[in-house]
Amino acid sequence: MSAISVRNLSKTYPVPFRRLRAFFRRPVKDPVEALREVSFEVETGEIFGLIGRNGAGKTTLTKIVATLVQPTTGSVAVRGHDSVTDDENVRREIGLATAEERSFYWRLTSEQNLLFFARLHGLSDRVAKQRIQELFTQLELDEVARRRFGELSTGNKQRLAVARAMLASPPVLLLDEPTRSLDPLAAARMREMIRLLAQQDPPVTIFLTSHNLSEVETLCGRVAVISRGRIRAIDTPKNLRDLSSGSETVNITIAGGEKISFTRQQGDTRLDEKIRELQTQGATIVDIETERATLLDVLERYEAADEHG
Amino acid sequence: MNSITLLPRRIFAFVARDFRLFVSYRMQFFLRIISILAVVTTLFFISKIFAGFTDPQFSQWRDPLATWLTGLAVLNYFMTGFSSLANSIRQEQMQGTLESVLLTPINLPTVIVASSAWDFLETTFFSFLYLFFGRVFFGVHYKGSFLLALVFLLLTTVVLACLGILSASFAMVFKRGDPFGIFLGAGSALFSGVFFPTQLLKTYAGPKLGNISLVLPTTHGLDGIRQVLIEGHGFDQVTQPLIVLLGFLVVLLPFSLWVFGRAVRRAKREGSLIQY
Prior knowledge:
The complex is a heterodimer of chains A (309) and B (276).
Chain A: E1 4-13, H1 18-23, E2 32-42, E3 47-51, H2 58-65, E4 73-78, E5 81-82, H3 87-93, E6 94-97, H4 110-120, H5 125-138, H6 154-166, E7 172-176, H7 184-199, E8 205-209, H8 213-219, E9 222-227, E10 230-235, H9 237-244, E11 247-254, E12 259-265, H10 270-280, E13 285-292, H11 295-307
Parallel strand pairs in A: 3-8, 3-9, 6-7, 7-8
Antiparallel strand pairs in A: 1-2, 1-4, 4-5, 9-10, 11-12, 11-13
Helix pairs in contact in A: 4-5, 9-11
Chain B: H1 3-23, H2 26-49, H3 64-95, H4 98-102, H5 108-138, H6 146-174, H7 179-191, H8 199-210, H9 217-229, H10 239-270
């Protein structure tokens, strides 16, 4: 059984009171198609990335998985529970961390906020307080436990959102830009924690959306590229890069500062031939750099394809 | 554990949260106590204008201060029953916390009950203050069964909570401009007999306008409570308002829950849960 199963999912946001507006001859906007025929599976313990531009449909897809938005057609199941007909059980299986600061009570402390949500999850006070303490330690939030949420730095607010998502130790975590406001060190620790969560026993399945493509590349086993509501590709980051462009640019610096650049297909023998040629000429190689296609190139490629129809 | 066994824990979660938020605004609490005392004192002096006035037609109004105080205390409670849910949903929407609450494995009836719990506790305290100040400072006496009055209070509050659920559904879909609130808020004070006998409406405004009071649950709730506390009536004498209130409940409870479920589904379809 997949951790998350998305089948033929489409979402069109209806225009509220469209007929009524039309009846009174008021301007009526067209419905917004946010997702079209999206299908994929996320396996247990997998770190699955979703990348795409703003408005591509990432948030809508995440909210549908989290039962906050209902699909127009198609279905989403989390560990076998349907997101529409069995939404309460889906919410038992997931934790969602978004970068939305307004989702906390600003006049309550970090601890009071988490205690409230832990109680809603059904944790007893003893278990909740123990779990909150664990999470504060794990996410380095001990110092701000008794500070009001409104007084926290953006990075700490972000970490508290992740702590809240992990409160009930859900088997599936939906993380929306979990490192967006963190300093480099904290971001690295967060990435390490995400990696460990996926490796622990039982493993936590991670559904990650991010604009930080190097983070997605480092963390995710598979990545889906979404553009204008459609999934354009799903594969490992390496295969996606290779699909985008199998070539790489090689920059060789030789003693004296001269630079030689050439393009080769990955896996061909041109680099070996070039090195031998330079050595035959008596040149001393001081540096070799390669520039490969990145996930950004992949995104740009699909975006350009969509723009040209 | 299932939803029913978790219900007390979840209600406690909301009450504890709202208590924390409440104590973060201490000044407001003390100002409200002072304002209630000021209202009770003002009504005491107004009631002195009517000293000695008795009309057998208005048996509940022989001591106007007692009648006003029960009216205000009870109306306060009824209005909480009515407005609490819509207000809490709207407040959560405006704060942006509604999605976070609905992300937990909590069902709709629990959200309805739990998010209003603190408001009821707070209102119980402030409503009690009206009666307490009247009794302690101005010698107002209440007779009859407090238990029976409590039955009326709870029944009417639940009926109004059903209307509150309809109001919350409206707030969920339209975000503002709730017509139930305008109708009940202004209507109850004018037509339910809080400040004057409802019979006067018929006399001065005609039977059509006067009959509006009959379709308001607050009229029947207030009448029942005053019959018990002021006239000292027992159960046998108050069956009529009791049956009317039960009738309201049987119709409104399933209807309001159905409408609220549809409103949430609609907001989820439109993706507008967080909007305000």
